[in-house]
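User: I'm putting together notes for a lab meeting next week and I want to include a structural view of one of the chains we've been expressing. I don't have a solved structure, so I'd like a prediction I can at least talk through. The sequence is below, exactly as it appears in our construct file.
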Amino acid sequence: MRQFLLMALLSFAFVSCGSNKKTEAEDKEATVKSMTAVPIDEKEKKTEELKKAPQLTLEQMRTLLPHELDSAKEKNYQASTQFGYGLATAEYPKTKTKAMKITLYDCAGEQGFVNYFENYWNHLNAQNKTETEFMKTIDFEGGKAIETYKKDMNLSTLTFVIRDRLVIVMEGKNMSPEELEAAAKKLHGKIA
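Assistant: Thanks for the context. Below is the predicted structure for the 192-residue chain, given as structure tokens.
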């Protein structure tokens, strides 16, 4: 009788362990399925958002770039919408050897969204550093910016987004990354 009771208990234990294994296997399978479920692709979502946004006019872009920035007066302003997206540039000479150049891309519309990814998105979280240059992502005014510096040319670049659609590329000739970032914060304050 004891043997029969012992066998019954062991059988019950094996059956209950087996059912737990099945439950664990089912749980793992459910977890894998939930992890492999297709999430909304952020890049695709951003593309659709930008495609639907109305493009800025030349007059609207003119108001975005200031006539003076960081004690430098604007020079050589140009703007265009002929390629299906808005583009405006201006230079800001500070001294004979030190100058800033700002390029503004309006990334709205059927063609504009490409600039968002080529100039900004695709470079986020990338890092590169050599003895003569670096590229890194930094925190900037509540968002992210791509900062580059080429030592041999003494050229700093800062790329950031304003209003979720305007990609700003600032270049600083004979300017340190810190100097350019300070000027970029002033520009951000005027546009945002």
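A couple of points you could mention at the meeting. The first helix runs from residue 2 to 36. The beta strands are 68-69, 72-73, 75-80, 86-93, 99-106, 128-129, 133-140, 143-150, 155-162, 166-173.

User: Perfect, that's what I needed.
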